[in-house]
Design a protein that fits this description.
Blueprint: H1 28-31, E1 38-40, E2 43-45, E3 64-66, E4 69-70, E5 82-88, E6 104-109, E7 118-125, E8 129-140, E9 144-154, E10 164-174, E11 180-194, E12 199-202, E13 225-241, E14 244-268, E15 273-281, E16 284-301, E17 304-321, E18 325-333, E19 351-368, E20 372-388, E21 395-399, E22 402-411, E23 416-427, E24 446-459, E25 463-479, E26 485-505, E27 508-522, H2 524-532, E28 556-564, H3 566-569, E29 573-582, E30 598-611, E31 614-623, E32 631-635, E33 638-641, E34 646-654
Parallel strand pairs: 3-6, 12-14
Antiparallel strand pairs: 1-2, 3-4, 5-6, 7-8, 7-34, 8-9, 9-10, 10-11, 11-13, 13-14, 14-15, 14-16, 15-18, 16-17, 17-19, 19-20, 20-21, 20-22, 22-23, 23-24, 24-25, 25-26, 26-27, 27-28, 28-29, 29-30, 30-31, 31-34, 32-33
């Protein structure tokens, strides 16, 4: 469940970037162009997020941009400088150079404007997190401005969780001469004494028969997580003539995990007793330099408008990972708090994982009046990975694919537009999960591709329907029976998505979204797995293999949101309802266990008022209204409880 407000990771905006506005006037639902996904400030709503688009994660795939330019993001970008994010898929890729099959995540930082805007927020977020945020723009004459931002969170102050988070950042805008704009930014945030959710594994792999306290910490007090992430860089926009754009971005990202611990409860029996294990990592470090140089030349011939693009992108990544150790705390009831002194872990040596990548691309964007649009591109990708693991031979990997993308859209009428698209990419596969033998290992990037077709239809009552069918293919990376996370075949996602959005009457906003997803595994290991996974002991012994459906995908997902502001949108009050539902998911790689369906309901209101001459808003919301308990799929054979009911309340004042 991704509730309406308060998530630290924002979701996706599929059509347009968040509009610059004072925080007191922000409303995620009235700002959304569709129901696919929108991010604005602390709020998000929609079928998709920056970590889940059509069943995949564009963030994990490494498809990140910042202010439109290639950016190898490590960790999160602090809300002290972050305005929102957009995911570019479908029709939005017409104006997105060199898209990717899993979508492009474009982060927008709070570039200072001309008005000296600012705001301050104080309140409670979900799960009783006390929160304070402040931001302010400062102008220095006509050519320079700076935005400063900061936030602090004290987590779960009711149940005693000692987690803390703080973040600071600054963004500048300088125009030294006409036609040149320089945007530097630097943001960092740190979280410490946090406790990530535990994972439960039952003996029969079905969901646990007992419930746990969803706000309770079951691991030792030392088994916490601590991380500091810093992202910074400079974007330079040069416009020497009206038909030539030169964009340059250079970025630095650093992620330091001072502490990282995972609590696993394994082999849980029918009475709810299981083996408690804590896996701890030594200090982990990842650093990256990345950037892009892009040229765009525009010209017109008759009724045709053309843009020719050339781009050079690259990154240099250096990671020190691995070396984990574990401690067995014995058998106990799955909800018991086990607190023992921290053992003297004998951490192993870490692995050096380095990536060097260069991408050279040329592209074209064309527009034929109001009749049709076309975009296409070709890229040469030079990817090199070097893995130096202790006691293992040095591994050198290379891949140099030539990849293509194209999209064409036709306006059949003033109300109907249709499109088709094809995209190839080289995308990261992410890290191995906590329970894997090769926990946290970073696997090589894999070749992927997507085809899609869809339409946009303007309907009566000021409603718009967006719908598409798609198919995405990627290498299948999954656990084997020795719990090693490795390539095992091919994974495809085929689906149909739809969004109905609009304002059928003044003051009323409606957003309805749905996804039908057919996700499947193919390959030799899948067929062997289907034959081996028969009988009462299926999946409990080595050799069970893979089923035909991947773990953790919902075949049916839906979202509904209604925002009503009485008096034809003029009232100080507004009210919102959000309903989110997902069908059961495969819970084990052999497809013999599934989860249950889930529906969550959020209710909220806003009251707008003045503090002196400054606009202000009071926001109150209840997330997961019914507080219904259910176990959700947290990985292959892994279970975690859903998010409990929580209250969000805060006051934002523009300054």
């Amino acid at each position: 469940m991704m509730p309406l407000a308060g998530r630290a990771l924002a979701a996706a905006l599929l059509v347009a970037s968040p509009a610059a506005a004072q925080r007191a006037g922000e409303n995620i639902l009235t700002s959304a162009a569709d129901a696919f996904g929108t991010s604005l400030g602390r709020d998000n709503f929609g079928l998709y997020t920056t970590t889940s688009v059509r069943g995949f994660s564009p963030t994990q795939a490494g498809n990140n941009r910042i202010l439109g330019l290639y950016f190898d993001q490590l960790g999160g970008v602090t809300r002290g400088i972050r305005q929102g994010a957009s995911v570019k898929v479908g029709l939005s890729t017409l104006a997105t150079p060199f898209p990717a099959p899993t979508g492009i995540v474009d982060t927008q930082v709070r570039v200072p404007g001309e008005l000296g805007l600012g705001s301050t927020t104080i309140g409670l977020q979900e799960n009783w997190k006390a929160n304070y945020e402040i931001e302010k723009e400062l102008r220095f004459g006509e050519r320079a401005a700076i935005t400063f931002g900061g936030l602090a969170e004290y987590r779960n102050i009711v149940n005693g969780d000692p987690g803390r988070l703080w973040g600071v950042g600054a963004t500048g805008r300088f125009r030294p001469v006409a036609g040149v704009e320089i945007i530097p930014f630097l943001g960092t945030f740190s979280r410490y004494k946090e406790f990530s959710g535990a994972r439960w594994f039952t003996r029969d792999r079905e969901q646990p028969r007992q419930q746990v306290d969803r706000n309770r910490i079951i691991g030792p007090t030392w088994a916490d997580d601590g991380e500091t992430s810093t992202n910074g860089g400079v974007v330079t926009r040069i416009r020497p003539t009206s038909d030539l754009d030169i964009d340059i971005g250079l970025f630095r990202a650093v992620q330091i995990r001072q502490s990282s611990n995972s609590t696993l409860v394994r082999d849980i029996d029918a009475e709810g007793f299981g083996q408690r294990i804590v896996i701890s990592d030594p200090r982990q470090l990842r650093t990256s330099w990345s950037g892009e140089l892009r040229l765009a030349r525009r010209f017109v011939t008759g009724n045709l408008a053309h843009t020719v693009l050339a781009s050079v992108r690259g990154r240099e990544v250096d990671a020190r990972i691995g070396g984990n150790a574990r401690v067995d705390l014995g058998r106990s009831f799955l909800n018991d708090r086990i607190d023992v002194p921290r053992p003297a872990f004998a951490f192993g040596p870490t692995t050096s994982d380095k990536v060097s990548q260069r991408i050279y691309g040329v592209g074209y964007q064309g527009k034929w009046g109001t009749i049709a649009e076309l975009a296409a591109g070709v890229q040469y990708n030079d990817y090199r990975k070097r893995i130096d693991a202790p006691g293992q031979p040095l591994v050198l990997l290379e891949d140099k694919p030539v990849q293509f993308n194209g999209i064409a859209a036709v306006n059949v009428s003033s109300k109907l537009a249709v499109y088709g698209a094809f995209t190839q990419g080289l995308e990261e596969t992410g890290a191995a999960p906590p329970e894997a033998v090769n926990r946290n290992d970073l696997l090589p990037a894999q070749r992927t591709q997507q085809v899609e077709a869809g339409l946009r239809l303007r309907l009566p009552a000021n409603l718009t329907l967006n719908t598409a069918v798609f198919k995405i293919e990627k290498p299948l990376i999954a656990l084997d029976d020795q719990l090693f996370f490795r390539p095992r075949g091919t994974l495809f996602h085929k689906g149909w998505e739809a969004s109905l959005a609009g304002n059928p009457m003044p003051g009323l906003t409606i957003l309805v979204g749905g996804l039908l997803l057919d996700a499947g595994n193919t390959g030799e290991e899948v067929n062997v797995g289907q034959f081996a996974c028969q009988g009462p002991s299926a999946g409990l012994v080595p050799g069970c293999g893979l089923g035909r459906r991947p773990v953790g995908r919902s075949p049916v997902s839906g979202r509904l949101a209604v925002n009503w502001r009485p008096d034809q949108g003029k009232s100080r009050w507004s009210f919102d309802l959000v309903v989110e539902g997902n069908s059961p998911q495969q819970a084990t790689r052999d497809n013999l266990v599934t989860s249950v369906a889930g529906v969550d309901i959020d209710l909220g209101m806003r009251y707008r008022f003045k503090v002196g001459e400054n606009a202000a808003v009071f926001r109150l919301a209840v997330n997961d209204l019914t507080n219904a308990y259910r176990w959700t799929v947290a990985g292959d054979g892994a279970w975690a409880p859903n998010t409990p009911r929580s209250v969000l309340a805060f006051v934002t004042v523009d300054i």
